[in-house]
Amino acid sequence: MEKIRRNERMSTMLKILSDAPGKLFTLNTFCALFGAAKSTVSEDIDALRQTAEAFHLGSIETTTGAAGGVTYWPRVDREAARAYIQGLCRELSGTERVLPGDFLYYSDILSTPETVNQMGRILATEYADCGADFVLTMETKGIPVAFATANALGVPLVIARHSSKVYEGSAVNINYVSGSGNIETMSLSRRAVKENQRALIVDDFLKGGGTARGMVELMREFHVAVVGMAFVMATVEPVKKRITGEKSLMTLEVLSGETAEAVVRPASWLSA
Amino acid sequence: MEKIRRNERMSTMLKILSDAPGKLFTLNTFCALFGAAKSTVSEDIDALRQTAEAFHLGSIETTTGAAGGVTYWPRVDREAARAYIQGLCRELSGTERVLPGDFLYYSDILSTPETVNQMGRILATEYADCGADFVLTMETKGIPVAFATANALGVPLVIARHSSKVYEGSAVNINYVSGSGNIETMSLSRRAVKENQRALIVDDFLKGGGTARGMVELMREFHVAVVGMAFVMATVEPVKKRITGEKSLMTLEVLSGETAEAVVRPASWLSA
After folding, report:
1. Is there a single domain that holds both residue B21 and residue B106?
2. Are A98 and A174 found together in one domain?
3. What is the model's pTM?
4. B7 to A100: CB separation less than 8 angstroms, yes or no
5. Please, are residues B199 and B226 in contact by the beta-carbon 8 Å criterion?
6. Is A62 in the same domain as A195?
């Protein structure tokens, strides 16, 4: 076999690591793949860590000891995050996307993979240390961004639904007051989570906070702690939500007039 | 500025390219990023193409001319795909996951990012040349795998819903006959797709094909051609579905007895 060069090893390792954020790979995995000595792979990883830092590609962490190895975490620094979200705000602001009832059309943004993945990486960076065992969302529109966040945190996604389906087995149902003031049902399969886990809630839209409050109550039924709540978009009004401690990427204000206009701004924590 | 080495350039390029499958990057993008000459970046890309091929990391394509550049496509070769799906089949087979009504619990598989991304890459490899402009799915459980497939194909995801929501604007609704024989409604925002586009349908589960048939009819309303239909799981019974030409990753048969047992097998096309 031809000797494998450092540039081949480094490129390949970064690809394998970044395809599985949060997953621990032992050095032996790469020694075997490349037919290389541990010292060689170690040096590769050191170089890779510096490259990732220099080009803002994420964070490469090594742990030593018997259970040691190397792990990749996607990270977006604050400045890049703010610039990215500002770009989205420009795209979403204006009159064209306002729907009757002062809603904003942004389903396209919520299902464009490149955008969704970047939002997921930004949220994962912000909630990197919250110790979430899974990401929780409520169907439907928040699923892609919740999935992208879960991917970047290296944890599973759990989807609460409006009604329990026969093919999910026994479920816990709760009632909650939705934004429109109706009593709705939220359902989650008993198999989906375990007691004493930690949940990060991620959803697309926050207005009054009824649905988010419902998710918090659902987690209480499962004896799961909610360690964070993140949203793509939060309305400026009402100021007082039914939840506290949440973060959103953008805020939405709709100015009425002859033609309603959406003003979308990056959330203030992105400027901190 | 310290000179940037080839191993740094190659690792960084592969990371940037693979974060945006299907996106064309001009060589100038990388020349500017690295302060390197075009000939240098060209050589890097050649080396990267060989590395990607040698280690089965996907495909790196270069196009020449004024609009030229470099694009990354995730690819899983047939053998690796079959081995991966065989592993999933082992995990899903047996008595533990069978629910009342002979349904199979696999929601966990459908929302574990690493698994879902690999399934998405396998489906994207199979439908690489179908020319899809977007991936279409019907809420809810298939959304993550449809999103992962869309990501790997570099196209947006479009989500059909059970009912039109006020915040999606005007919508097209159709009625279809669901698996349980009920008449149900499927809805899609008018803004979501354009006439004469091409759709790849991706969903989690295929039994009779009623929902899939509904999606085909929905696309007809939008004058969109369906260029492929892919499912994570298809039941062996009924043999005759309401659609034809679909591919699934796995087939499901539930053997009745004192304890019902699921037999999950890789689809035959994976062995071809």
Report:
1. no
2. yes
3. 0.97
4. no
5. yes
6. no
Alpha helices in A1-142 (DSSP H): 6-18, 27-34, 38-54, 78-92, 113-126
What residues make up the domain containing A97?
78-271
- Contact call for residues A252 and A236 (beta carbons, < 8 A): yes
- Same structural domain, A47 and A67: yes
Euclidean distance between CA atoms A73 and B185, whole angstroms: 42
CA–CA separation, A33 vs A204, rounded Å? 41
Helices then strands, counting H and E runs in chain B, come out as: 7, 12
User: Which residues neighbour A239 within 8 Å (Cβ) at sequence distance 6 or greater?
Assistant: none
Note whether A159 contacts B111, CB cutoff 8 Å: yes
Q: What is the pLDDT along chain B (272 residues), one digit of tens a residue?
A: 568 999 999 999 999 999 999 999 999 999 999 999 999 999 999 999 999 999 999 999 999 887 789 999 999 999 999 999 999 999 999 999 998 888 899 999 999 999 999 999 999 999 999 999 999 999 999 999 999 999 999 999 999 998 866 667 889 999 999 877 889 999 999 999 999 999 999 999 999 999 999 999 999 999 999 999 999 999 999 999 999 999 999 999 999 988 999 999 999 999 97
Interchain CB contact of A23 with B (< 8 Å): yes
Contact (Cβ atoms closer than 8 angstroms) between residue B109 and residue B205: no
The CATH number of whichever domain residue B121 belongs to comes to 3.40.50.2020
Q: 3-class DSSP state for residue B148?
A: helix
Residues B129 and B222 in one domain: yes
Question: Residue B133 has which token pair?
Answer: 């402009």
B139 contacts A107? CB cut-off 8 A: no
Rounded to whole angstroms, how far apart are CA atoms A217 and A223?
Answer: 10
- Does residue B144 form part of some domain? yes
Cβ–Cβ gap B166/A23 under 8 Å: no
Say if B51 is an interface residue toward chain A (CB within 8 Å).
yes
Verify that A137 and A258 share a domain, yes or no: yes
Structural domain count, chain A: 2
Alpha-carbon distance of A92 to A109, in angstroms, equals 9
Put simply, whether A112 touches B (Cβ < 8 Å) is yes
Which residues of chain B does A116 touch, with a Cβ-Cβ cutoff of 8 Å? Answer: 147
Tell me: do A18 and A61 sit in the same domain: yes
Provide the angle, in degrees to the nearest 10, between the axes of the packed helices A38-54 and A6-18: 70
State the CATH number of the domain containing residue B67. 1.10.10.10
A108 and A63 share a domain? Answer: no
Residue B71, strand partner residues: B61
Q: Which two tokens stand for residue A268?
A: 């203030």
